[in-house]
Design goal:
Elements (H helix, E strand, L loop, with lengths): L1 H19 L7 E3 L6 H17 L4 E15 L5 E15 L19 E12 L2 E13 L2 H7 L5 E2 L5 H16 L6 E12 L4 E10 L19 E11 L5 E12 L4 E3 L70 H4 L33
The structure holds 2-acetamido-2-deoxy-beta-D-glucopyranose (NAG) (2 copies).
Main location: secreted
Pfam families: Cystatin (PF00031)
Protein name: Alpha-2-HS-glycoprotein
Amino acid sequence: MRSLVAFICLAQLLSWAAARSPGVPVAPVRDPDCDDLDVEQAALAAVQYVNNNHKHGYKYTLNQVDKARVYQRRPTGEVYVLEIDLVETCCHVLDPTPLENCTVRQLTEHAVEGDCDVSVLKVDNQFMVLNAKCESSPDSAEDVRKICPNCPLLAPLNDTKVVHAVEAALTAFNAQKHNNYFKLQEISRAQFSPLQSSVYTEFVTVPTDCKPIDVIDPAACNPLPNQHGFCKGTLTEKVGGGEDVVATCTVFVAVPAVPAPQPDGIESSLGPAVPAEPAVPAGPPVAAGPAVALGPLLVDAPAVLPAKPILTHLPHHDLRHSIVGGSSFESASGEYGLNAGPVAPGPGPGPAAPAIPLCPGRIRHFKI
Ligand SMILES: *[C@@H]1O[C@H](CO)[C@@H](O)[C@H](O)[C@H]1NC(C)=O
Ligand SMILES: *[C@@H]1O[C@H](CO)[C@@H](O)[C@H](O)[C@H]1NC(C)=O
């Protein structure tokens, strides 16, 4: 009798532990359509998580859900394991413009694609990202050439011509004597134009506590917190020698919680060739819909400027280097594989032959 009581206690303890332990392997329950509404919500939560966690380069937006599988999670909830395709937008990750307002980088601008394997927990109608593993790559040069033989291709970000073009653009911008002296934080994108000998660049700057007129030693200028300038520069070599430099920057001041632009959004253009672009002010953030990414932030925003501007020899900032994992309490990679084969109908009173899921889902922007 005593041993029976002990056994019952042990069994209760085990079932309690199983219910509590989030790492207990779970059986797949269904393969939903890739365009299922909940799948889309989970995918959007994952995109938000990716954008919150990578600190270089641009925001991505959802292009297509490739695969989807749902697992039951004990004690409650479901885990959505997805393969999703993203495309790069024109908004830098530090730019407070809501994703909905960011335009997608077109194929003719040399588009960049992101691929992610994600696990998203749905519980109480909330989506929480457990794990995300991503990489990204630019469209191939051959594919760009196919649709557009003269389109400028992405260039390595540490190329001497690129670095020179960015420095020249920043010097030109600082020469316009704005309130502050701006320093370079990151070179984000560069393209060589094959027709004219020109270099187009996009880069991130930070205003400092120095006035532009009295900068003797830029190293002594301290970056102002939570402010960034998103700049575009074009350097063109003139036929008779010399260079034309055009630079425009849109400066955002991130007020805690509610990003807003500096009242007189600094924005300017040098040289007659390129008209000034209108500043894009950031209004109050637009609600991101019901999908809420509650996953932990992997990296905190750097409070100070890195000692050196971010350079990479790649033509873009690969998501592989900035999205490296997720929540540690539940490793999704092993337990919720997408490669475990189709969900076999169980021998018991399981669902009758499951419908074949409609995957991959629709393409939102373009095939890349
Ligand atoms: C985003 O777009 C919406 C709708 O087009 C517009 O009302 C809103 O002002 C835009 N917000 C920003 C920050 O551009
Ligand atoms: C760019 O970076 C790569 C790899 O770090 C390096 O091999 C190459 O020499 C660099 N190029 C320039 C121009 O600095």
